[in-house]
Structure formats: C-alpha cells, structure tokens
Amino acid sequence: MNLDHPHIILSTTSTQKERFNNKRNLSGYQCFCSMYWTDFSSSLTTEQKQTLLIEKGVHDAVQYERDDDDSVFSDSDFAPSITLGDVSALASMHWRGLSLPCRDAWKTRARTTINNLPILGRLPTMPRRINNRTILDSLNQELSQFIKRVQSGVKRKPRTRDSQVSFYYVYEKITVHSQTFRSFNITPLLIGIIFGTGFDHLFEREILYKSNKVVVIYISTMKRANELLTIEGVSAFRSDSLNSNCYFTAASKVSLKLENEAPVVGYLLETVGEGEGDELAKVALENGRIVHMPMPRFNDQHHWEFDSPFLYQHQWYYITHYWPIRLKINLSGMISLLFNRIQLENITNRLIPMRN
Q: What is the spatial distance between Cα 232 and Cα 288, in angstroms, rounded to a whole number?
C-alpha cells in the first residue's frame, strides 16, 4: 500500500489486521503506524530493513561490522535484532515527513473506515431470542459464582502464612503476608449491580483511584464491606460456621501500641461518630479490648495519614500499621481482592482470636 498518497489511503479496503483488531477509537497516527508495521514486515527483505534502519540513524552501522577473524560467522550473527521500538521510530519519522493532505487522509480513514468496522466476535445489539428471563438467569448464575469465590477466601485459611508475593494497587506495592488474595473475572453487569453505575454505590473517599481502565477501592470497616457486598440478603464477605455459633468475615486490620506495652493487632468493625470529619472506627483488639480510633486517611501524597497517638479512655495509643480491604477492578473484566479474615461470635460480634 502507498502510505503517502491520499487517494490510495482513502480508497484501500481494510486489511485483515484492521478487521480483527478490537479497538475502535484509533487515531490517524495509530492507523498509519499499524499499516507501516505491516508493510515493513512483509514488503522488505532483511537487507532492505537493515539498510533503512542505518540510513535513518535508528541503528549504527558499526553494529554490523565484523573482524576478519570472524569470517566463520555469517552476517546475521552480528546484526542487531529489529525491535518494535525500532520500527516505531521509523514510522514516527515517516509520519513527520508526510504532507498535511496525507495526514488528513489517515485521520479520515481511521474515523470513517477503521473505527466504524464491526468488532468480530462481539454482538452489536441484543439478540431478539434473548428475553429478560434469560438475562436474569445469567445474572443470578454470575452472582452465585461471585459470592462463592469471595466466601471461599473468607472461610479458608490463606495457603501460606507469610506470603512474600506482592501486588500493585496503583500507588502502593502490597506484600500479601498473611492476608487473603482472590482474583477472578467479573462482567460489566455484575460491576454495575454491586458497585453501581459509575461506582455510585461507593463513597468518594472509598475510591482511591479511578480511570477508564481501572478502579481501586479501599474499604475501612467490616460492617461497610458487608453492606457493599450484600446481594439480596447474602453477603459475599460472610461465611457462617455450621458447627459453632460463629462466622467468618473480612475487616481492615490495624496494629496499635500502648506506651510500655507490646503492639497488639485489632480489626475495624464499624464507624462511630456523627460527622464524616469526626468519624471514628470501633476496633476489636485481639487482647479483648475495644477502642475507638480516628479513621486513617490516604492523603494527596499517596501515603497513609494517622491521627497518632490518639487518646481513648485515658490511654494513649500509637498506630503503627494499617491494612484496609483492597479491591482493584480492571474494567476489561477482572477483579482482585486483598483482605484480612476474622472470626466473630454470632450474637455478640465478639472477636475470636485466630491465626491466619
């Protein structure tokens, strides 16, 4: 294909690569680069590619030189590999040298031809044979699978007591340690049912990060986590024990220290206090105490901010570490959850200490 003639650019039919590509928001430059890569790969010999790379300054001719002592080797043994970055550099140079009518032709081709192609393997509209009952059955099946997957993480102990595996939650690199990690597929319909259209079931402070591709959510308390993931009376974050008067659930974890005492672990059960600015968290400590502590905040510098030390019932407590319930949703269809599991008595909600 002639990359430099407006009439040919606009009249050429779409290629197989363009038809099978599932992106329909390409710019003129992206459309050009895709065609440039195809022509470069299929139309030029290895020697022509190397010559072009040297002429344009992408490769250095010295890289292709060899000593007489190396005559036993072929030229290909010394030639540097041609990378996607090399071809992208050539495409960028070529694009900058195009006339304005040529650039406009590529932009028009992208807008009127490529971006209007149907996406192969994807339904453009709802099939007539699908009725509301079928959709409801499908949704209920998805909800059931979602609840089972989360509940299995709540009920079962993590596979490793101190896992060193790490995951990125945009601003933070989190090591799992004794937390429970779950990751699985989730559909847009299920995201909308649980988190709301545009994630409007969440408070603004719970959305740590939001883009067109990923949303990161931090939940502070056990009660809020169960409210959010309760669907038609069943919480994905709760698993009742059939043989005892207790249940397993998820909660944020905190490490507190009193003066002259060893640190103690606690779990945030619910919020107490009137206004959002005055909000406190009710924390159940593993030593049996209950304390009310100021709610941790994630500041603009992407660090946790604590009101520490804080005073409760005439004792000063220092917050040394905090692990919220973390959810990361890739809008392409994947959710990951990282949380601490706890065990509570059914009636009293008293914390039953256990080892993860």
A: 33
pLDDT digits (tens, 9 = 90+) for 255-276: 999 877 889 999 999 999 754 4
- Residue pLDDT, tens place only, 174-221: 888 888 999 999 999 999 999 999 999 999 999 999 999 999 999 999
Q: Which of 87, 116, 145 is the last residue of a domain?
A: 116
**Are 106 and 161 part of one and the same domain?**
no
- Residue type present at position 189: L
- Range list of β-strands (E), 144-296: 163-169, 172-177, 180-185, 207-210, 214-219, 230-231, 234-235, 238-240, 246-258, 264-272, 280-285, 290-294
What does the longest C-alpha to C-alpha distance in the chain come to? Answer: 87
Give the total number of structural domains in the chain.
Answer: 2
Residue 71 pLDDT exceeds 60: no
For residue 164, give its domain range.
135-345
CA distance 165 to 160: 10
pTM above 0.85, yes or no: no
3-state secondary structure of 190: helix
How far is 217 from 206, CA to CA, in rounded Å?
Answer: 6
Q: pLDDT digit string (tens) for 96-107?
A: 999 999 999 999
Q: Give 137's contacts (C-beta < 8 A, 6+ positions apart).
A: none
Rounded to an integer, what distance in angstroms lies between the CA atom of residue 61 and that of residue 307?
62
